[in-house]
Structures are given as structure tokens and as C-alpha cells.
């Protein structure tokens, strides 16, 4: 089944191809160009001057959870600071939930994201924090999401000894989870895991063939970025508090700086230094960090709008970061881009240009979405 899409008012491809029309064939993009040169297709859809871009690539979410942290959010808005300790509340609720309840939460949020144009999504374990619950979180995530990350090193479970827990994570837990995931991550931050503990977990994961990611520099400057660059991690996520040396290190590495502005707003932190990273030459991605504690949104458009209005990114930089940047953070070349051979993941805006994402903040602009060649809304 092939579909010719015509009438594209503005086409953002993140690639060398340009035009005002494209053809989807099955799950892939088959052709991009000007409508006068278009090949025949089974069906034709006229998007009547709307902007078309790749579907959002959300490279950082925590969707395998149960429970609710509205009260914690309310306390924060009344002035209480965010600490990593709230994670333990979600861990207790997650352990008490059934497999079906957890799967339903993951499905619900992925569907919510898809309705807003997110066509590729990563999610993590990290609210199980024992072998059985990390394994089932990974299994459920793998059934629902595009990419899965093992985050056994999210928090030392309250009452447990940190070094004993690190040994469990890099030993029995990693052995059990590794076959289900592509990535391993650690929360390298004061109150979570220090440099040595984080490095031990990541090195064990790398020895198992997993790609590496790091949560770092979220609540203050620290060793997260340095560790991520040192170990060649695909991405270091948060990057809210960066030293000049962190920015230089990122700029001269392949490690993507994944910025999570919805999280910084929701935890009343500063916004990350996007302009300094871009000006230094670092690769920047934007992601939602959808989770029940620090960032309960699946809206990539909100992240893009914030990046433009408050982080001094141009609309083009922000859209790239939320599509091709997310793909690069996940080391994918088949998504976040429109070109022949890429996944047919398309986001049509009810607007003539991507500029409207910032020009019309808060307005739901998703008109229609194709994911792997299938129109979903
Ligand atoms: O990315 N930083 C650590 N992990 C999550 C927070 C999870 C939570 O508060 O439940 C984050 O913000």
C-alpha cells in the first residue's frame, strides 16, 4: 500500500532531500520531491499547505510506574525542593502493581504521546529496584516501547547498603535484565550514585554489550557529564548544571546532551544552558522525561516551545533536537528524518510552518500522524 502526500506547505526533512510531496510505501518513505515528479501511488492525501516534519523522537521517559505523586508536586510548588527521594514512593507503588496494571500505564502514555506526534519512544526500568521487579519492568517496556533502558541504578532502595546494592545491580540484576534491553543508565548525582559506583555499573553493562546513557548534572554540578564522555555514552541526560569544562567535554565528544526542560520547570530548577552547548558545538537533543515525579508530561511540543522561548534555541534547532537529536541520542539513523528508506513516521501540523510551535505556545497543533506508514490520527 503506497500513499502520495501532496500540498506540503513546509517540509522539514533533517536530510538533504527537499520538496512539497512524498510517498510512503509500507512502513517506509519511498520518495521525496516536487509533486510534478511524483511516482504513482495507491492513495493520495492533500495536506493543504500544512507543515510536515518527522515524528518526535522522545529519547528519555520513565513509563513503567504505578501510583501518583500529585501531593509531592503540590508541595514543590509551595516551595519544597525536589530531591531524588521521591523515586522511592513510585518504587513502592510499582512493586505492588500487577503486570497488567503496569502495561496499561505504559500503553496509555505511549498512546497519549502518539496523539501529539511522538512516533518513537524510549522508556526505562528504574522503579523496580530488585531483580524480579526490574526484570518485569524491562519485559513490559520491551513489549510496548521502541527502545528500552535498564536503570537499576536509579536510587539505592531505602534501608539498603549502597555498595551491596551496586554489586547486585552490576551482577545478578544486570545478568537477568540484559537480554531484554539495549541500553543501561545510571543516576549519577548526589543522593543517588557517585562517580565510582556509576562507573562500576556502566562498565559491567558495557561488558555485556549494552549501550550506555547517564542521568547527570540534574540537581547540581557533578561528575555525570565527565563520566558519560569518558565512557563514550550515547547520551547524558538533564545537563541542567554544567561547568565550562563539561560543555567543552561534550562539544568534543559523540555524547549527546539531552535536555529535559519540562523536568527543570516542574522541579523549579534553572533551564539548561542550551545556547552555550550549541555555540560550543555540542549535539543537543530534547526529550520529555515523562515520569510521575519530576516531569509528568508527554508533550514534546511543550519542550520545543520552552526551548525556543526560554532557552534561546531557534525553532529549527529545537525541532531538530526533538527529532534527529533524539535519534542520535539513541544511535538511530532510521527515525527523526524524512528521506527515502527512513521509517515513515510523519507529523503534520495544523499550521503552515514549524515556527508556529513557538509562535502559538500551548495550542495543540498536531493535525495528523503516520507511524511506520500507518495513519494513527
Ligand atoms: O529523570 N533523575 C532521576 N530520575 C527521574 C526522576 C524520577 C522521579 O522523580 O520519579 C528524572 O527526573
Q: How many β-strands, per DSSP?
A: 17
Strand content: 15-25%
- Under CATH at level 1, the class of the largest domain stands as Alpha Beta
Computed over alpha carbons, the radius of gyration is 20 Å
Task: Explain how this protein is built.
- The protein has 377 residues and is α/β, with parallel strands linked by helices.
- The protein has 2 domains: 2-54 and 337-376, Urease, subunit C, domain 1 (Roll); 56-330, TIM Barrel.
- It is 36% helix and 21% strand.
- The chain is built from 14 helices and 17 strands.
- It has helices at 70-77, 87-96, 99-115, 131-144, 162-177, 195-207, 224-230, 244-251, 261-266, 274-280, 300-310, 315-322, 324-329, 356-359, and strands at 2-6, 10-11, 21-25, 28-33, 43-46, 51-54, 56-58, 118-124, 147-153, 183-188, 211-216, 235-238, 256-259, 284-286, 346-349, 366-371, 374-375.
- Strands 7-8-9-10-11-12-13-14 form an 8-stranded parallel sheet.
- A hairpin with a 2-residue loop joins strand 16 (366-371) and strand 17.
- Helix 3 (99-115) packs parallel to helix 4.
- The chain is globular and about 65 Å long.
- It starts with a strand and ends with a strand.
- The mean pLDDT is 98.
- Bound molecules: N-(iminomethyl)-L-glutamic acid.
- N-(iminomethyl)-L-glutamic acid binds at residues 62, 86-87, 90, 187, 215, 218, 263, 289, 291, 293-295.
- Residues 62, 86-87, 90, 187, 215, 218, 263, 289, 291, 293-295 line the site of N-(iminomethyl)-L-glutamic acid.
- It catalyses: 4-imidazolone-5-propanoate + H2O = N-formimidoyl-L-glutamate.
Amino acid at each position: 500500500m503506497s500513499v502520495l502526500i501532496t500540498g506540503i506547505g513546509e517540509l522539514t526533512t533533517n536530510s538533504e532531500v527537499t520538496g512539497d510531496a512524498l510517498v510512503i510505501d509500507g512502513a517506509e518513505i519511498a520518495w521525496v520531491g516536487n509533486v510534478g515528479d511524483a511516482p504513482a501511488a495507491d492513495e493520495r492525501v492533500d495536506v493543504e499547505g500544512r507543515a510536515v516534519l518527522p515524528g518526535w523522537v522522545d529519547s528519555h521517559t520513565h513509563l513503567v510506574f504505578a501510583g501518583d505523586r500529585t501531593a509531592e508536586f503540590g508541595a514543590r510548588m509551595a516551595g519544597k525542593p525536589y530531591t531524588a527521594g521521591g523515586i522511592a514512593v513510585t518504587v513502592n507503588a510499582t512493586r505492588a502493581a500487577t503486570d497488567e496494571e503496569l502495561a496499561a500505564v505504559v500503553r496509555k502514555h505511549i498512546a497519549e504521546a502518539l496523539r501529539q506526534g511522538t512516533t518513537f519512544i524510549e522508556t526505562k526500568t528504574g522503579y523496580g529496584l530488585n531483580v524480579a521487579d526490574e526484570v518485569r519492568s524491562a519485559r513490559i517496556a520491551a513489549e510496548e516501547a521502541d527502545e528500552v533502558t535498564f536503570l537499576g541504578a536509579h536510587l539505592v532502595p531505602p534501608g539498603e547498603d549502597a555498595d551491596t546494592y551496586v554489586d547486585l545491580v552490576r551482577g545478578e540484576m544486570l545478568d537477568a535484565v540484559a537480554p531484554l534491553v539495549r541500553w543501561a543508565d545510571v543516576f549519577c548525582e548526589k543522593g543517588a550514585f557517585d562517580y565510582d559506583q556509576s562507573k562500576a555499573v556502566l562498565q559491567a553493562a558495557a561488558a555485556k554489550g549494552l549501550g550506555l546513557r547517564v542521568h547527570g548534572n540534574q540537581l547540581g554540578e557533578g561528575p555525570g557529564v565527565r563520566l558519560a564522555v569518558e565512557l563514550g555514552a550515547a547520551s547524558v541526560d538533564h545537563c541542567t548544571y554544567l561547568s565550562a569544562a563539561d560543555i567543552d567535554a561534550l562539544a568534543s565528544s559523540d555524547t549527546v546532551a539531552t535536555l529535559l526542560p519540562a523536568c527543570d520547570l516542574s522541579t523549579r530548577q534553572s533551564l539548561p544552558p542550551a545556547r552555550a552547548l550549541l555555540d560550543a558545538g555540542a549535539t543537543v537533543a530534547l526529550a520529555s522525561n515523562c515520569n510521575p515525579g519530576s516531569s509528568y508530561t508527554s508533550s514534546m511540543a511543550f519542550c520545543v516551545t520552552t526551548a525556543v522561548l526560554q532557552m534561546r534555541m531557534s525553532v529549527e534547532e529545537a525541532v531538530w533536537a526533538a527529532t534527529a537529536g533524539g535519534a542520535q541520542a539513541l544511535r538511530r539513523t532510521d527515525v527523526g528524518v524524512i528521506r527515502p528508506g527512513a521509517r515513515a513516521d510523519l507529523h503534520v501540523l495544523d499550521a503552515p510552518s514549524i515556527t508556529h510551535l513557538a509562535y502559538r505556545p500551548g495550542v495543540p497543533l498536531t493535525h495528523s500522524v503516520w507511524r511506520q506508514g500507518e495513519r494513527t490520527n
